[in-house]
Amino acid sequence: MSKEKVYIFDTTLRDGEQVPGCQLNTIEKIEVALALEKLGVDIIEAGFPISSPGDFNSVVEISKAVSEPTICALTRAVEKDIEVAAEVLRYAKHPRIHTGIGVSPYHIKYKFNATPEEVIQRAVAAVKYAKRFVEDVEFYAEDAGRADNRFLAKIVEAVIGAGATVVNIPDTTGYCLPSEYGSKILFLKENVSNIDKAIISTHCHNDLGLATANSIAGVINGARQIECTINGIGERAGNTSLEEVVMVMKSHKGLNLETSINTKKIFPTSRLVSTLMRMPVQANKAIVGRNAFAHSSGIHQDGFLKNRETYEIINPKQVGISESSIVLTARSGRAALKHRLATLGYKLDQKQLDDVYAEFLNLADKKREIHNDDLEALMGKAARFDRKIQLESLQVICGKSAIPTATIRIKYEGQVWEGTETGNGPIDAAINAVKTIITAKTTLEELLIHTITRGSDDMGKVHVQVESKGKVFYGFSANTDVITATVEAYLDALSQIV
Ligand SMILES: CC(=O)SCCNC(=O)CCNC(=O)[C@H](O)C(C)(C)COP(=O)(O)OP(=O)(O)OC[C@H]1O[C@@H](n2cnc3c(N)ncnc32)[C@H](O)[C@@H]1OP(=O)(O)O
Ligand SMILES: CC(C)C(=O)C(=O)O
User: pLDDT tens, 398-432?
Assistant: First the structure.
């Protein structure tokens, strides 16, 4: 059975741009419009031309720049709005006027102080007026989500009779449950005599987090256009997210619905909109969030590494993300650690892996995320697990007005030794404390401490150079505590001398 097409009506530049702080200039809007064209959207709602000279100009320029998608301009059921929209759309290859009026009891009573019959008359008059200028006229029944279904059917039938090519049934306040919204669309399919002459469109807001679910309920029940935005931006809690509805339809083959979206362009378009609108995408946002394809717990990572589909329903490449990621944290297991170390060129046997894993967990408990350079540091350290002199404990007193003092316990030749010494700083005190135990004649020639600079919780890496009897020995360690790292690096070098 061939799939039915669902038209994607993108309103990022109209409903999305209504978000405080997300306003774009004309050049930025053209950039987004061109990206939407490449993405494959069918309709771009470019703006509300009567609202300001800037918006007027943007719709003109977008109409000139974009050739494939239909360019749509929003209006109220007001003649002047429609005239202005018609004027800008003269430049569009495929123009559409989107006009409409509020249809819920709240809108009819409070916004318009009108009767339902008067609202129907204004709706019909607006559609007829728009038809004078363009063939393609979409009618929106604002707040249809809270409107009485019988009244909605009546107004929808009247505007289709007046020439509307698309009827938009917005859940303006994001109130509906998916079952209610789906039934509303079905009700229109079954109770509007001329419904087959128009396409039914969904336009669902996300006030209860149900925008995607409601839009999908809409198409399951017969709507064939979804209004949506990149990253789900829009008035208040946002609009339906384009990437979500498109990927729901692509993933659920049983729905038998398709869109003309080039899904590989989803991620780049999401980033472009986020950057230009200065609107970060939440990390856990479906499809395009930073964590949407990131696996961070051991059981998931192990399953994912055995077979991607164990924990992924979408291949990230399908949406333009090059690969999934494995984030190493204290919740990661050996499988993930082994995998990452292998990508860094380390092949470990089980014993080595167990040893590094123990060190890894110690570090991961202190840091939020373990990066490759942390692992390189750990591996440098792990290679020396079997050093002759082991640090058992270290306690340092330091700070302003304190005499830097270190007490150290080290294990050497099966015995534990303790020493305490002062110094001109905590590192000097710790090295002096070691010298009270390991008395071999050595010179600490060089001590290099550097941090990996991801923040104050990062690891310090320490390299030392120790001279003994004319020969130079190198020691290395890494630790979130740089004094401990320094002593370990020093003991690493001494282990090669004694
Ligand atoms: C559901 C949506 O419409 S989403 C789009 C929302 N986007 C915007 O509002 C942005 C663009 N809006 C604007 O720039 C301005 O609000 C304008 C230019 C449209 C109107 O500005 P103003 O003339 O100053 O009116 P104001 O915004 O204060 O009030 C809106 C008026 O439009 C009326 N109105 C609202 N919706 C409609 C409609 N669909 N059809 C007819 N009239 C409407 C209101 O009843 C009110 O009229 P009133 O002053 O007679 O009570
Ligand atoms: C103008 C209409 C489509 C709208 O944005 C809404 O009802 O939310």
Answer: 999 999 999 999 998 889 999 999 999 999 999 99
Distance 203 CA to ligand 2 centre (A): 7
What are the Cα distances from residue 402, in Å, to 324, 396, 422, 423?
Answer: 50, 11, 11, 11
- Binding positions for Mn(2+): 15, 203, 205, 239
pLDDT of residue 382: 65
**Ranges for all domains in the chain classified under CATH 1.10.238:** 294-382
Q: What is the mean pLDDT of each run of 10 residues along the chain (498 residues)?
A: 94 96 96 98 98 97 97 98 98 98 97 97 98 98 98 98 98 98 98 98 98 98 98 97 98 98 98 96 97 97 97 98 96 97 93 93 90 86 72 94 96 91 96 94 91 74 90 85 93 90
Residues within a 6 A CB radius of ligand 1: 18, 48, 50-51, 76-78, 100-101, 111-112, 142, 172
Computed on alpha carbons and rounded to an integer, the radius of gyration of the chain in Å comes to 33
| pTM for this prediction | 0.85
Residue 50 alpha carbon, nearest atom of ligand 1? 18
- Residue range(s) of every CATH 3.20.20.70 domain in the chain: 4-277
Is the CB of residue 187 less than 8 Å from the CB of residue 223?
no
For 42, the enclosing helix (H) or strand (E) is none
Please report the DSSP string for 49-89 in residue order: GGG-HHHHHHHHHHHHH--SSEEEEE--S-HHHHHHHHHHH
Fold classified for 294-382? Recoverin; domain 1 (1.10.238)
Q: CB–CB of 200/193 below 8 Å?
A: no
Q: What is the ipTM of this complex?
A: 0.96
**Residue 158 confidence (pLDDT):** 98
Centre of ligand 1 to C-alpha 107, Å, is: 12
Cα–Cα nearest to 341, from 323, 324, 362, 355: 355
Domain 390-495 class, CATH top level:
alpha beta
4-277 has which CATH code? 3.20.20.70
Binding pocket residue ranges, ligand 2, CB within 6 Å:
15, 74, 140, 142, 168, 170, 172, 203, 205
Pocket residue to mutate for ligand 2, from 10, 17, 142, most atoms within 8 A of Cβ: 142
